[in-house]
Design a protein that fits this description.
The protein has one domain. The chain is 78% helix and 0% strand. It contains 13 helices and no strands. This is EamA domain-containing membrane protein RarD. It holds the Pfam family EamA.
Length: 306
């Protein structure tokens, strides 16, 4: 049962979403490449959580079968983050976040496929809106096609592991899941490194030694943007409705793009066509929980015979 939410809870939720929107910017502030960033982010995040469990003497054991599923989900998370940071590097933070704005719509299509339920009419309509928005962005920002494609692929992977996590969280503590998923993501980044070094570094090899401010940004990324933000979001779920949370989380690209323009200035300023396409995507994403909310209310009335 949900507890009474306060204005402070809603403000805290927006603050957490701003933190998540800041991750693409951190990817540009850190000098080491995307694979190395993901390695340190997941290593630090799993390390922080491991220390918390150690201090609290909390048991984190999972069965071998369940552990395999959770570690596998961590592999997907790692690939998602690698593409996410890579997209920001080959384009801009704004382009990356525009592509990532499609995550919830991908989820709307993937979830019915996994749960073997019907796709709703408004999901098809909003999906077409997202495609039209992406087309507008591609038309005006053709030079960033690679970064936008990577971001959309990252969003698709994010949707897949979100659906998987939806099932896993029903059986396990979210904190235990996050610990093992971060551990799995770290393992994947290590396994991917030889392939990455051989084919994507142009002979430069891996850059595993952070420089200057990198350590500060990495601790911010692993500690604040991952462990802290997740912990607070889980706590807020006890008092806020899923509708309020989903609607607010969909504002992440907006906050991220605004922050990118404020921090990087002209480098992040795009053509009017880019913002038009992004606006179309965001409208469709923001409309989804609204349509879903009223659709559930209508179905509930039918069941009650109202």
């Amino acid at each position: 049962m949900l507890q009474n939410a306060t204005i402070k809870d809603y403000l805290m939720l927006h603050f957490i979403v701003v933190i998540w929107g800041f991750t693409a910017i951190l990817g540009l502030l850190i000098s080491i490449p995307s694979v190395e960033i993901v390695f340190y982010r997941t290593l630090l995040a799993s390390g922080f959580l491991g220390l918390v469990f150690l201090v609290k003497k909390q048991k984190v054991r999972l069965s071998q079968q369940e552990l395999g599923k959770v570690i596998g989900t961590g592999f997907l998370i790692s690939l998602h983050w690698i593409l996410f940071f890579w997209a920001a590097r080959v384009s801009t933070a704004s382009v990356c976040l525009a592509g990532m704005a499609t995550t919830s719509l991908w989820t709307a299509f993937i979830e019915p496929m996994v749960n073997k339920s019907k796709i709703k009419w408004f999901e098809i309509l909003l999906g077409m809106m997202v495609i039209s928005g992406l087309y507008v962005v591609f038309s005006f920002e053709g030079g960033y096609w690679l970064g936008l494609s990577m971001a959309v692929a990252s969003a698709l992977i994010a949707a897949i592991f979100t659906v998987i996590n939806g099932r896993l969280t029903k059986r396990h503590s979210p904190y235990v899941l996050t610990f093992y998923e971060m551990l799995g993501a770290c393992i994947f980044s290590v396994l991917f490194m030889p392939f990455y070094a051989a084919f994507f570094t142009e002979g430069a090899g891996l850059q595993l030694i952070p420089q200057g401010w990198d350590w500060f940004w990495l601790f911010l990324l692993g500690g604040v943007c991952t462990v802290y933000a997740f912990s607070v979001s889980v706590e807020l779920m006890r008092r806020l409705t899923a509708f309020a949370i989903n609607l607010t989380v969909n504002l992440e690209p907006v906050y991220g793009i605004v922050l990118a323009v404020l921090i990087f200035g002209e480098k992040e300023q795009m053509t009017p066509g880019f913002y038009l396409g992004t606006l179309i995507i965001l409208i469709s994403v923001l409309l989804y929980p609204v349509f879903n909310y009223f659709n559930r209310r209508r179905q509930a009335k039918r069941v009650l015979g109202v």
